[in-house]
Amino acid sequence: MPGTATLLTGPAGVGKTTATVQCMVAALRRGEKAAYYLFDERAPTLLSRSRALGMDLQPFIDSGSLDLRAIDPAELSPGEFAATVRASVEDDQARMIVIDSLNAYLQSMPSEQFLILQMHELLTYLGQSGVVTMLILGMHGIMGDVRADVDLSYLADTAVQLRYFEAFGEVRQAISVIKTRTAQHERTIREFRIDHDGIRLGEPLRDFQGVLTGVPNFSGQGQALMAASEPGAGAGDA
């Protein structure tokens, strides 16, 4: 929804960036403009990985509809970053803003409280401007005790959680919408895989209990998970 902020959380490598890029590409294909602020990795790495997943960003960059910037938080103050985002909205007419990730952005802040105040002000401005904001927040831990450096979930209109879970001797990935303020949302937890077409969703994990803890219990019978033999089943994401 225009004017809303979506927070994607999860441990490293689970697919947060891929899910965000897929949403952004959908907006770009509708003719909207977007600005992607990359704190965690090099731009060439993001471009090559997205291209391999069937989401080539280079044509959008060449046409001017996508502004991809690699940000060094040590060289850009929080105030300068906010001014950069505002210029993208007002001068370049960007309708989607992506911040990847808040963990690196936090390093430029003198304190956690300062980050919360800064993000509250920035998200208020973007919301009033009708801009869709995508925020990525990495979490510590892979299975079990997964926690974030800072809790910004209450600032977001929608919170999406991506998790690893163990099942039948394999590490798998699950996605769920924790909350949304704009409409009713599906409350099931679904397995997903990443392949050359981006993200593929499986059926709801109704035969599993404890998926969000990382160590679920299986209570069903038969095949309840996505088949490993499907094309691209081994693809991953940072």
In short:
The chain has 238 residues and is α/β, with parallel strands linked by helices.
What are the salient characteristics of this protein?
alpha/beta; disordered C terminus; 12 strands; 6 helices; Rossmann fold; 238 residues
Molecular structure report:
This protein is an alpha/beta fold. The protein has a domain at 5-161: P-loop containing nucleotide triphosphate hydrolases (Rossmann fold, 3-Layer(aba) Sandwich). The protein is 27% helix and 30% strand. The protein contains six helices and twelve strands. It has helices at residues 16-29, 43-52, 58-63, 78-90, 102-106, 112-128; strands at residues 5-11, 34-38, 66-70, 96-100, 132-140, 147-148, 158-167, 170-180, 190-195, 198-204, 208-209, 217-218. The strands form two sheets. Strands 1, 2, 3, 4, 5, 6, 7, 8, 9 and 10 form a ten-stranded mixed sheet that branches. It is globular.
